[in-house]
Amino acid sequence: MAELFSADWMNALKDEWNGNPDVKDKLAEIGFNSVIACGFKGDDKPTGVFVVKNGECISAGDYNDETVDWDMRANRKDWMKWVTKGIGFMGSDMIGMGKAYASGALKFQTGDYGAMAKNPKMAGPFVKSFSLMKSLDTDK
């Protein structure tokens, strides 16, 4: 088991990401490049980071002051709920993501959620990436 957003956990997510054509290949189709960070509300900095080039996650690990394009934050309880049950556990993942964002449970410190949500070629894989977290062996 690995601690949420630890280097080991982020690398396991990298493997899931790269092994899922609905995420990696779909993002490659649109030339998606991004540095994505995750962490907890109230923390000064995110905890984990992964770098995506042309849809493929090329590196992942601990956040080390990288300049990020996306910085997603939530409290530990919400992250653990999504890791265990998925973000759309009460319905579709897209609706779940929208509810998490609208309620403030999921905050984007950096990144334009609205623009992403309006682009189906980006939104679908983005939401799907959250479901990848369910397959990771995460410390409770």
Describe the secondary structure blueprint for this structure:
Layout: H1 7-18, H2 24-29, E1 34-40, E2 48-53, E3 56-62, E4 70-74, H3 76-85, H4 93-103, E5 107-110, H5 113-117, H6 120-132
Parallel strand pairs: 1-4
Antiparallel strand pairs: 1-2, 2-3, 4-5
* CATH class assignment: Alpha Beta
Taking Cα atoms only, what radius of gyration do you get, to the nearest Å? 14 Å
What class do helices, strands and sheet pairing give?
alpha+beta
- Please count the beta strands (DSSP E, at least 2 residues each): 5
Number of domains: 1
Describe the protein's architecture and organization.
By secondary structure, this protein is an alpha+beta fold. The chain has one domain (7-135): SCP2 sterol-binding domain (Nonspecific Lipid-transfer Protein, Chain A). It has helices spanning 7-18, 24-29, 76-85, 93-103, 113-117, 120-132; strands at 34-40, 48-53, 56-62, 70-74, 107-110. It has a five-stranded mixed β-sheet with strand order 3-2-1-4-5. A hairpin with a 7-residue loop joins β1 (34-40) and β2. The chain starts with 6 loop residues before the first helix and ends in an 8-residue tail after the last helix. The model has no long low-confidence stretch (mean pLDDT 91).
